């Protein structure tokens, strides 16, 4: 028995897919998770998603589909979390290649369906930006989700669209997502988080970190991303909702526009036209800016002083938690120093570690 789960946006959606499988299908064989290698600049200094040509050690499953085993490696200077995920989780990770547009991903899905004959196919998105129209002012990264939605709507097999943690990606307000989905079909619990606990200690995803935290009972307001967006952590956070695929495609202007695209360049052009930007352009600009920034040493004493200042300001904004990704940028550190920062803070002030988030205390400790 094979379950195919498509991680709509890659990254943390792939981790959430493992949690979903444990929660819904835990007594069955492990899942095949189809996901992007698109870890953004925190992990990968090269803008945009990686394709099969950017790895060594992939294993061909079908003419258009490659699996990413634990021994695979991204070709320097590229980076990817997928081999590490494959090493820690019992699932099969399969690489989405968006460089041939929505038509290429559709072809990959069709070959997977023929090869695996899966018992079910779930398209999973954490946060719900897959339901965006495209003109929302808070929308930042619509392209990956639009491509997978466009492909899943064209494959000749039933696909169930699931949205976990409405609003947790900071892209759409939770109420907008809830208006577009059905009742909750499952609510994650702390037990559901157990299979991915070790992954959460190193994976950079903010949305899936908040999904896990809310499943463990964490409540408050979490500040995320380089822009410091406030995301509410509520009882709705760990919920999983089903959404109608046809209605999602009808809402998502970008997904409709890119149905027939054969290249990522075409899809990007539609994103610029409909959304006013391409998220890969943002990555290109930020990557160029980062190359001009001199590395800042991680000095523990300096970091703790900056942390106290950051927390004082965050408390004044009503913030109760933040992610280590946001902390890294807020403290003017390089993305490569995120794990070192995490170890420093969790060892120095363990009471503030609401795994996998950092709790802003009422008073400095």
Topology diagram in text:
Blueprint: E1 3-7, H1 12-25, E2 32-35, H2 40-43, E3 55-56, E4 59-62, E5 65-67, E6 73-74, H3 82-88, E7 92-95, H4 101-116, E8 120-126, H5 143-152, E9 160-164, H6 174-178, E10 184-187, H7 190-193, H8 197-200, H9 206-215, E11 220-224, E12 229-233, E13 239-243, H10 245-251, H11 253-257, H12 264-275, H13 279-291, H14 300-316, E14 321-322, H15 324-330, H16 338-348, E15 353-354, E16 357-359
Parallel strand pairs: 1-2, 1-8, 2-7, 8-9, 11-14
Antiparallel strand pairs: 3-6, 4-5, 9-13, 10-13, 11-12, 14-16, 15-16
What is the compact description of this entry?
The protein is an alpha/beta fold. Helix content is 40%, strand content 17%.
């Amino acid at each position: 028995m094979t379950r195919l789960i498509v991680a709509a946006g890659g990254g943390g959606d792939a981790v959430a897919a493992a949690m979903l499988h444990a929660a819904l299908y835990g007594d069955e064989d492990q899942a095949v998770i189809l996901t992007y290698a698109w870890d953004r600049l925190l992990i990968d200094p090269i803008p945009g998603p990686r394709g099969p040509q950017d790895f060594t050690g992939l294993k061909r499953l079908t003419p258009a589909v490659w699996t990413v085993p634990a021994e695979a490696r991204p070709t320097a200077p590229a980076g990817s979390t997928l081999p590490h995920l494959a090493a820690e989780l019992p699932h099969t990770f399969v690489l989405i290649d968006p460089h041939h547009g929505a038509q290429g991903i559709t072809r990959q899905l069709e070959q997977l369906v023929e090869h695996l004959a899966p018992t079910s196919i779930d398209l999973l998105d954490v946060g719900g930006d897959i339901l965006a129209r495209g003109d929302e002012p808070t929308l930042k990264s619509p392209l990956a989700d639009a491509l997978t939605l466009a492909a899943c709507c064209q494959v000749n097999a039933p696909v169930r669209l699931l949205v976990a943690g409405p609003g947790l990606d900071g892209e759409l307000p939770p109420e907008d997502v809830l208006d577009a989905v059905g009742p909750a079909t499952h609510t994650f619990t702390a037990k559901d988080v157990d299979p991915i606990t070790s992954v959460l200690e190193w994976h950079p995803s903010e949305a899936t970190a908040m999904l896990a935290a809310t499943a463990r009972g964490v409540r408050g307001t979490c500040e995320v991303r380089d822009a410091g967006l406030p995301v509410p952590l509520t009882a709705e956070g760990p919920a999983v909702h089903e959404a109608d695929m046809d209605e999602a495609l009808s809402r998502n202007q970008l997904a409709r526009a890119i149905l027939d695209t054969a290249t990522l360049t075409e899809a990007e052009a539609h994103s610029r036209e409909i959304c006013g930007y391409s998220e890969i352009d943002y990555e290109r600009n930020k990557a160029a800016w980062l190359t001009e920034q001199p590395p800042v040493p991680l000095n523990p004493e300096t970091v703790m002083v900056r942390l106290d200042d950051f927390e004082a300001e965050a408390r004044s904004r009503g913030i109760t938690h933040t992610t280590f990704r946001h902390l890294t940028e807020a403290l003017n550190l390089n993305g490569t120093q995120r794990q070192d920062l995490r170890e420093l803070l969790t060892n120095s002030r363990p009471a503030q570690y609401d795994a996998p988030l950092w709790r802003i205390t009422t008073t400095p400790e």
